[in-house]
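Folding Task

Wanted — backbone structure
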Amino acid sequence: MTDRYGDNHEQVESFLDVACSLQFEFVEPIVAETRSQEVRDAQDALFAVRFSAARRSAVESASRTLVRTLREEFPTPTTAAERVVLNSFTGMLNSAVFAFASRPVVGDETVGLVVDPFASRLGFEWRSWGVSVNGDLEGHRG
């Protein structure tokens, strides 16, 4: 069954739930870990995936809600440098939500470049989850 987030909807929803517990102390390390050109290329690949307007809207809305929830919990940035770091972090978080919604269209190597910095800090094992493709389950949910 395809949900509003696509074939990988269960994993998207689980990530959204667990990501609400991201700690402010993770912001700078995640930003530092995701500064490479390889990660930027992965982001480009994720945002090039074609979604229906309804699915894109649902994923964007979920991502905005997650970012808003975290920003309410995080300290307010007081300098331009702090704002830049926090904006980078929230941009990567948005990419992570899109990465899960893009599986299996985009391979796990590309998805991993974007989501692993979050998943490792959250203890979120995502690679073992199967993804339904045209009604057939690939892998298994672990």
